[in-house]
Amino acid sequence: MAQKPSIPKGTRDFNPEQVAKRNYIFQTIQKQFETFGFQPIETPSFENSDTLMGKYGEEGDRLIFKILNSGDYLSKVDDALYIEKDSNKTTASISEKALRYDLTVPFARYVVQHQNEIEFPFKRYQMQPVWRADRPQKGRF
């Protein structure tokens, strides 16, 4: 018997009714933020690994989804490192990007990168998905 397609654990689909409700809630929140002078920003879904790694501590680093480099990513791995088969040591050679774990570090990077264009205090809001490579507890995504 053919197996039904599935989605990765910790993710979910939203049907049209759910999307409409979510959009209504997001629009209500956005309207309130903007009423009080907050401005929206968006940052990329992924950042350079060196921006994210080490900022969350050792436990947090294990919860970050790393993205494999494009192309023949194993060609950059030293042969001795490859033979050793230590994924922790190899990761830096095969992955230079990672999905954001929360919005704090990407926001800090944004402020540093755009500090001459931002008027302080910078009142911003940001509503975007994040990805954590952990086992979600019941009822969490």
Q: What does the secondary structure layout of this molecule look like, with pairings?
A:
Elements: H1 16-35, E1 39-40, E2 46-48, H2 49-52, H3 57-62, E3 66-67, H4 79-84, H5 87-94, E4 97-99, H6 104-113, E5 124-125
Parallel strand pairs: 1-5
Antiparallel strand pairs: 2-4, 3-4
Question: Could you tell me how far the N terminus lies from the C terminus, measured between alpha carbons in angstroms?
Answer: 30 Å
Question: How many beta-strand elements?
Answer: 5
H/E element order: HEEHHEHHEHE
Estimate the mean pLDDT confidence. Answer: 87
Largest sheet: 3 strands, antiparallel
- Assign the structural class, choosing from mainly alpha, mainly beta, alpha/beta, alpha+beta, or little secondary structure: mainly alpha
Taken as a percent bin, the fraction of beta residues is 5-15%
Radius of gyration: 19 Å
Number of helices: 6
Helix content: 25-40%
Shape: flat
Name the poorly predicted regions.
none
Spatial order of the strands in the main sheet?
A: 2-4-3
Description of the molecule:
This protein is flat. Helices cover 38% and strands 9% of the residues. The strands form 2 sheets. The chain has a 3-stranded antiparallel beta sheet with strand order 2-4-3. The longest helix has 20 residues, at 16-35. The protein has helices spanning 16-35, 49-52, 57-62, 79-84, 87-94, 104-113, and strands spanning 39-40, 46-48, 66-67, 97-99, 124-125. The two termini are 30 Å apart. The chain contains 6 helices and 5 strands; from the N terminus they run αββααβααβαβ. With 141 residues, the protein is mainly alpha-helical. The protein has a domain at 39-125.
